[in-house]
Amino acid sequence: MTERTETFDDAAPVVTSSGDGGLATERGEGTEGATPQGGSAAATRVLSLFTPSGHPTLGNLLGALLPSARLLETGDCVFGVSDLHALTSDHDPARLRERSLELAGLCVAAGIDPARCVLFLQSNVPAHAELAYLLESTAHYGEMQRMIQFKEKSARQSVVRLSLLTYPALMAADILLYQATDVPVGADQAQHVELTRDLATRFNRKYGPVFTMPRAVHPPAAARVMDLSEPTAKMSKSIDSPGTVFLLDPIDVVRRKIMRAVTDSGTEVVYDPEGKPGVSNLLAILSACTGTPVADLTAGSYGVLKKETADAVIALLEPIQRRYADLSADPAELEGILRTGAERARERAAGTVVAAKEAMGLLSA
Hints:
Blueprint: E1 14-17, E2 23-26, E3 45-50, H1 58-70, E4 76-81, H2 93-109, E5 118-121, H3 127-136, H4 141-145, H5 148-155, H6 162-177, E6 182-184, H7 190-207, E7 215-217, H8 251-259, H9 277-290, H10 302-329, H11 331-360
Parallel strand pairs: 3-4, 4-5, 6-7
Antiparallel strand pairs: 1-2
Helix pairs in contact: 2-10, 3-6, 3-11, 6-7, 8-10, 9-10
């Protein structure tokens, strides 16, 4: 899902819950690349969604948005803003609407061209919630309860919403709805994609071959951007930190944050994430922004490194901010993009939902 967007080991067993609450192992023989009901073998189709849980950061740009834009060259791409996922915790409705539109606009501004892919708001395609319930009816309680993100997030909340427990079924629906073959994911989402494979395998065996079996893909290594003020922690869009560079920060603020970045003892500019996390973070950002391998970067001092990194980040952000400003000045353009994207997504999703319902024994209208 990005928030991401939504990694499997093709040789790994599919782990599910047995009837007694223990673990049972099913292997996916005969289901890899299963042909969807009523269709033909799918060509490459990439699926990635991004959750509007905060203002997008430089880390989101380098780790998700730009890599997604590059995937437009590889096949049929479906991208979305997973606003339904944001309902799993307490939220402000007005802020959710604002952040959803902001994220959609930044997707376009970062190069996710709606003329070359499907780009939509998840909540504008009712089939996501409909298929999620069918998959909830395929999933086991034990599977949901064992999800690492559920354990971690529920431990931090005094009141836990039921949707936090069941949203992995929604994430699985996001993937299976469009018969996605390739799902770019980070390590933190690997378990969710494994569950998607579990559910697709179980459904196809029990009811018939409705879902294409997706696989995780690992795009070329994207920068893991750390907090500039605490370089041992990942840069987060949901934590207020002076070391977070937001994509819509004024340019002078961007430069100031980078120039104030925490470095390390000593004076040698060398990539050593363990011994020099601050300097290594700046080198990783500079490399991601310029396309120059870290090993080929040279900077005589920490001050020079900070200036070069700030210049590179600003050169990357300025055209994105200009494009976003154009979209903001003409709200009808973004609204039209999302309306068209939702229509295309609904058309693609309809056949999958009908096939799944019929396979489960539900009567067509």
